[in-house]
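Attaching the record inline, Q. Sequence:
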Amino acid sequence: MQNEQFEDGTMRALDMQSIDTGMGLERIGALLQGKHDNYDTDLMRSLIEASAHGTSTDPDGPGKIHHRVIADHLRSTSFLIADGVMPSNEGRGYVLRRIMRRAMRHAHLLGADEPLMHRLVPALVRQMGAAYPELTRAEALIEETLKLEETRFKQTLDRGLRLLDDELEKLGEGQPLPGAAAFRLYDTFGFPLDLTQDALREKGRTVDIQGFDHAMEEQKAKARAAWAGSGETRDAAIWFDLAEKHGATEFLGYDTETAEGQILALVSDGKETGSAATGAKIQIVVNQTPFYAESGGQVGDSGLIRTETGTATVTDTKKAAGVVIHIAEVSEGEIARGQPAKLEVGHGRRSAIRANHSATHLLHEALRRALGAHVAQRGSLNAEDRLRFDFSHSKAMNAEELATVEAEVNEYIRQNSPVETRIMTPDDARALGAQALFGEKYGDEVRVVSMGRLAGSGKGGDGATYSLELCGGTHVARTGDIGAFALLGDSASSAGVRRIEALTGQAALDHLRRQDQRLAEVAAALKAQAADVPARVKALMDERRALANEVAQLRRELAMGGGAGAAMPEARDIGGVKFLPQIVAGVSGKDLPALVDELKARIGSGAVLVVADTGGKAAVAAGVTGDLTGRISAVDIVKAAAAALGGKGGGGRPDMAQAGGADASKAEDAVKAAEAVIGGAA
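Structure, as predicted:
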């Protein structure tokens, strides 16, 4: 590397000229070990052999390339996950997912029927964990993520192959798969192009690559056109300018909720202004502030900024380029740049936010203890009215797990232990056992927040601490300040990530009081004691189920008789096949399968059709006895009947199928359509 070339073709000699030998660490390792191939070094060989063992195949046989891809991608995916990247459909998460799926496809080609990648993680940790301790810390998370992703990918693989077959049915013999179809498989269903090509190669087909590239470019063009940047993005330049001019804002809010400061800048519509009068919406920058700017899941503070000439009400606080931005409206008088100011954080709101943030730390540790070491924070919200916590876990928590976690958090709240903070280097903090948020970038110094003491630990050292996390947020002085903790339940946030929502303090008590009130209302309606409500509700549900079954049976009996005093219609003979149609009213769609089964039993051999009027619309079901399903399909019958009723589709099995229709008055047309299908197949 010798020169720098410019757009006009001129060149300038580099200050530091050099030669790139291509001798990376692995090539040096191969040289020192007397190998001619990076994949033959001890590092890669151990991973390749682990892959071969996991698939019961020869590491140097026909699947040699597959093993190399798996070993190489196992490393890259594991390091990405350990650094906080999780598989998703956008950004770096999408890059990770593509790498993972390429390795998983090669495992599939080796014949792996069960997820393989997660079983190879221990081999990687044994090989590289000493040099890269983050792998050891994240081992459980890496295994959980890989297992979940590979399980999902196997489903995608099966679905994609089915969709590919559907697309091929539309083509003539030997025609290449259109690029738009290949791109749809890739973009909508996550089916990689190279896998599509492999599947088609087995069928002697190809893909229109040019069409695929065109579809890809079209999508990129739409994405670029749709992205205009948020207002914050467009205004970002001014905050960098202010940071360069005045430096970063000093935060005082760990120790105080009030402070004196000087207004350094007022910003309106992305431009600096000298002053702002009553009613003006303004962004205020001061030299130092007790207001916490939104960060790490904790919402920004609100409060007041007062000067000699006016007052501004702060509704939110954010940060950009190290500058704390007080988003405010001038509520009285006028404020001006350069004025001294008194800053007051809203005490009640800050206290509620602090309680929720501290409860989040206790919740994180309780989840780890209840569910396993793979649990890691994946996002959070600490607001004044609630907390939300996203964490890595592949399945919903059951009632017992939720109760255990809630009880443990409340136990440490009642302990009322002091919440302590220390400043140290990230390495020292991790050595101490502090939990870090994967993917978060930390500076030379970090705040370590500790709370709670393990039972029986006395006044021991750091090993006796319950929760120990790196955190820049504000917290309560003692765990008892949280007051109380009430879980609202968990739900799915994204693939492999669960979400818990909870309340603390007065909000938690209000929630529990409302729950008690609802229980009392239910008990009063049931004329029972609160303790007896579950048993009474179960009894009522059983009774309701029995009555519903009885009503359904009566409706079927009425339908079978065609009404009071009416005789059962005779089965028709269509090409030697018995066909029994029945048009009924007052029978729901869910009751039709049982009615079809009864009619099939009555005719012994043949086909049946039931059309039910469900309030103007129609429900239709068809059945074919087992001896005829090789010739006639109930799915074909019901599709024809549904079309006559103004409906579409229909599905099921050859012996039983259902569909819906828009117009029940066309029931006779549906019967004729069914007869035509049976006649054509008989």
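Residues 351-511 form a domain with the Threonyl-tRNA Synthetase; Chain A, domain 2 fold (CATH 3.30.980.10). Residues 283 and 327 are 5 Å apart (CA to CA).

More tomorrow.
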